[in-house]
Design brief:
By secondary structure, the chain is mainly alpha-helical. 50% of the residues lie in helices and 10% in strands. It has eleven helices and five strands.
């Protein structure tokens, strides 16, 4: 069966799909299975069009995408088996992260790109911080009462890197969420948007006792102490 040739890209401005540079430098040379390559590129395409802090896709929606299933099908294996194998390979390689979630209709498989946000999302699923939303397009909903530390950081300080995400994860396990939120607020107020400065505040509270600060309730005194005291070393670092 012959297929028509590709007529070329359209004129005018076209939407672009962001793909991490590591895909070309580190990941692409390792991929030796065409189905795995297809599902990896498909994930970048689908998730780039999603909205929200955490983006994911389900196996059900992939299995009902006629274009994807047609592309995956080969004479030796049916499309659904090809999808299973492609996903398994991508998860095994570490490109995609997989979690199973109990929904009303049974267990559904969800996939996230293995990025800092993807890892944070999977951790939230495992902690039970996601629940069914009832929306077929976005069936999972994050139900934490306050923004998690990754969202707080990106909204107030700057973009996350994998190294920063790891340090945030460690801080989240070491300090109360309210401390981290308040320390980020102090950094924003003092216009010192650096994680090391926030970390120094948390360390100071842990060592001295947060509720024993003599400047409690005096925001101006607190501001001067953080700027002029021992934390001043992190002001310009």
């Amino acid at each position: 069966m012959s297929h028509p040739g590709f007529p070329g890209f359209k004129d005018g401005k076209q939407p672009l799909i962001p793909i991490p540079a590591e895909f070309f430098s580190d990941l692409l040379p390792q991929i030796d299975h065409f189905g795995e390559l297809q599902i990896t590129l498909y994930a970048f395409w689908v998730l780039a069009r999603r909205e929200g802090t955490f983006r994911y896709m389900s196996k059900t929606e992939m299995a009902t995408d006629e274009r994807l299933m047609l592309a995956l099908a080969v004479p030796e294996i049916d499309a659904h088996s090809a999808l299973e194998e492609a996903l398994e390979r991508a998860v095994t390689r570490g490109t995609l992260l997989h979690v199973g979630v109990e929904l009303d209709q049974g267990v559904e498989d969800f996939y996230f790109v293995n990025s800092a946000k993807g890892r944070a999302a999977v951790a939230a699923v495992e902690k039970g911080e996601w629940s069914p939303s009832g929306d077929p397009l976005t069936p999972l909903s994050l139900v934490v009462e306050r923004p998690n530390v990754y969202t707080l950081y990106e909204q107030n300080i700057g973009p996350l890197t994998p190294m920063l995400a790891e340090r945030l994860r460690e801080a989240e396990s070491q300090y109360p969420a309210e401390w981290i939120e308040e320390a980020i607020g102090i950094a924003v107020e003092n216009n010192v948007r650096k994680w090391r400065y926030i970390e120094a505040i948390l360390e100071s509270w842990e060592q001295r006792g947060k509720d024993e600060r003599e400047d409690r309730g005096d925001s101006e005194k607190a501001r001067r102490r953080y700027i002029q005291g021992k934390l001043a070393d992190y002001w310009d670092s």
